[in-house]
């Protein structure tokens, strides 16, 4: 590759941010400011130069966290350091909604306008906030898809770019660089805020947000009220009989000792006693299927990965939870982070991987902080590293942060994102178990799926399989939000009915419809409360369980507006790779706009059009995003009689 | 005589194509089998010199047992597969894909687009006059070729030809996301500020005429472009010793564009800036 770089130079701040991740440049060829005679004898090419492409996304994060946007100079410098063509890096930077390649204020206030938050008044929140945070306020207000804070709707997230803070609370997320020295860096070039102190990186979560609380958090995120503990999202917290949620709200999520005193790392010991094949057998016998939405048998996936002759094998945890209405993985990671670390270690052991990647949604700052801490503690105690538990098995976990792209939750798009490419899905076959991350055999599992492995190993496959129904075994987490009295994460054995779940959460008297499975799922009517919440039960009822979203809508919520928001979501989140999805989602939204105020005959023509476009999206799109982009709208028309 | 590499003998895969037995060498795609059987499947993002991105989805066919349709250009034929190319379901998707494309971009210079739109009875107008379009102005920032992204269907062929499949210049990429995605160089700068080496290999593979020679663009604008009157002469490039074949497209005794035969074992359709654009001296008559 003979790369061409521009003449733009990074600012000192941008250079510092990149160097904090990658170390100082070795040569002027890499963008060092001083030229020396050594440079005449310096060369780096081939694989060592190109193999660091996967650091592109962390590099973009480093610049964005520091400055708030990605300038030409910063992007060019990053490209020089990583031997990445600038055009491709620009393509990657413009792919993610959390990055900006145009100047913007250092503080960004993301206001969730998705279904649950819209029902809770996000429009008023936006109006109130935008009125007070205009140009010159130093805050840019961005309307955001679901932030995964549905139990606290309407929600907002503040991200303020700045230099790394000394305290743990404001640590800029960066799993690669050591934390030491953060406080010693010079303040040269850094902007100063009104108080005269250096502007530091900070995040704040506000929910339920009022214009006042959101503006306050946006102007001083470090002084914002501390976020409510994750256990508040679990109405059942502390109750006996819980399996997956039993430690949430009970243990200190930052303490490894606390985790171990509540049964932590018993499953890993059992895994070492069983051996990799034994673990896979247990997981297969337990009947565990993926909880991300696709319900693929986990044991089959692990077996297929483990048996691949190509090496190395990778384990990837998909924590890019972005399905509107889904927040179960966040609550698990924030309430019981060590359980995910332990489960990933077991999964890695079973599939023969020595490296695990945890791809975490970019909008989850607290989960990132707690998982970072958990990994560090586990490393320090020999629960990760060269010799896990003294068993001669080496395994380590690296966190990679997403940057605002729903599509990256698609398994192969996630691989591309980690590898430093645009997060576009790959065509399958080949499947990830054969050619996944970096083209190597990869097992990719959702957070909840992995966490289920712990009870399987501690209680045994038979006992686990006895929970739930014959075809859907085990406990399941449900994300209940919308018009219910007690929104939050509920754990129920598979087989409970929709009505039982909603009774727990406080069903409203004027329930109109329930959205099952999120934006990619479907609506059911208020009189369908006896649908069993199992994969086979929802399928038989012509709907889907998806990732476990149960979003209740009462009759005050205007259905056409909900459908429009869902259509908008898919239009915004389509990666643009294939035609049916790229253009189809736009045409779907246009048609829904046209009929927003119409019914009956007046809407019939556009509904016919929607059906035709929807059918082509479902049949001909590359990945699940396009294939499901019409599901919710279709179910609203057919099941709820919208527009009749 | 051209030496044709024979390669390792490949086993034959047997499967059913529209009810008929089909036998193709292992590794062939469904599209290869269709073409061998004389079936005409529309394609846009597929190109004979590139690995298709299967992004346009206009070649979808029905594979029995599969939940969704499969892109014929990329799905490899497997033994025992039951493939149907002309079902109502496959034709419906092709029709809608053509409608979606024709309603958002200008397909006027896309070979065969009009024919397919007619064949599949696609009606791009039915999305109404307010249907969003790509709406881009032609970018004329150099004397050699023009980028008219109003005609771009985002097939990724130019990106692949510029990148690791042929030229390794990596001057262009897809930027942005969804309907706003476009082909661009870094920072959306003019080509002259980019890594572009003006080999024109992107122009060679563009299926829609979004990328065209400046000469062709100007003549089309003036209304003088007339492909029927053009002659094509294949010769050998005289610049260096590689011996690339050039096909000179001549109208009114003027070279109007230069291509290279895609089956040429030296070029596979690719050239460098000299072969592609350095023909002015030939017609210097002073």
UniProtKB/TrEMBL annotation, chain A:
Q: Entry's InterPro entries?
A: NADH-UbQ_OxRdtase_51kDa_CS, Nuo51_FMN-bd, Nuo51_FMN-bd_sf, NuoE-like, NuoE_N, Nuop51_4Fe4S-bd, Nuop51_4Fe4S-bd_sf, Soluble_ligand-bd
Sorted keywords for this record are:
2Fe-2S, 4Fe-4S, Iron, Iron-sulfur, Metal-binding
Which positions fall inside the NADH-ubiquinone oxidoreductase 51kDa subunit iron-sulphur binding domain? 560-607
Q: Ranges of Low complexity compositional bias? A: 176-196
Residues covered by region (Disordered): 1-36, 164-196
MF terms from GO for this chain are: 2 iron, 2 sulfur cluster binding; 4 iron, 4 sulfur cluster binding; FMN binding; metal ion binding; NADH dehydrogenase (ubiquinone) activity; oxidoreductase activity
- Which cofactor names does the annotation list? [2Fe-2S] cluster
Where is there biased composition of kind Basic and acidic residues?
1-12
User: PANTHER family from the entry?
Assistant: NADH-QUINONE OXIDOREDUCTASE SUBUNIT F
Family according to the record: Belongs to the complex I 24 kDa subunit family. Belongs to the complex I 51 kDa subunit family.
- This chain belongs to which protein, by name? NADH-quinone oxidoreductase subunit E
Q: What taxonomic ancestry is recorded?
A: Bacteria, Bacillati, Actinomycetota, Actinomycetes, Kitasatosporales
From TrEMBL, chain B:
Molecular function, one GO term = oxidoreductase activity
Q: Which residues form the 4Fe-4S Mo/W bis-MGD-type domain?
A: 230-286
Q: Which PROSITE patterns match?
A: 2FE2S_FER_2, 4FE4S_FER_1, 4FE4S_FER_2, 4FE4S_MOW_BIS_MGD, MOLYBDOPTERIN_PROK_1
Q: Which residues form the 4Fe-4S ferredoxin-type domain?
A: 143-162, 188-216
Q: What is this protein called?
A: 4Fe-4S dicluster domain-containing protein
Keyword Transcription attributed: no
Task: Give the InterPro entries listed for this entry.
Answer: 2Fe-2S_ferredoxin-like_sf, 2Fe-2S_ferredoxin-type, 4Fe4S_Fe-S-bd, 4Fe4S_Fe_S_CS, Mopterin_OxRdtase_4Fe-4S_dom, MopterinOxRdtase_cofactor_BS, PSI_iron-sulfur_center
In this protein, which residues make up the domain named 2Fe-2S ferredoxin-type? 11-89
- Per UniProt, which keywords does this protein have? 4Fe-4S, Iron, Iron-sulfur, Metal-binding, Repeat
Q: Which PANTHER family match?
A: HYDROGENASE SUBUNIT, PHOTOSYSTEM I IRON-SULFUR CENTER-RELATED
